[in-house]
Amino acid sequence: MKTLTITISDATLEKLADHAAENGKTSEEWASWMLEDKYDDDWLNDLSEEDRASLAEALAEADRGETIPHEQVMEEMRRKFGW
User: Fold this and answer.
1) pTM of the entire predicted model
2) FRET label pair with 40: which of 1, 17, 47, 81, CA 20 to 30 Å apart?
3) Quick check: 45 pLDDT over 70?
């Protein structure tokens, strides 16, 4: 195991400490868990075959340019949810 030293703002440190305490961890343990979880690609293995197939199809659609512009999605959300 290696040690990494980083500099973060006081506000971020406070948020980190709050989340850590809520989960029964130290700030250091919580930061380590967040980094390991964020960069853990094994989550793909936890998906069902159906979810993997849906994800593969969505990526294929995007590769073919079959996407909806952000502005259109936001307009639909505003109409639907009154944002």
Assistant:
1) 0.45
2) 17
3) yes
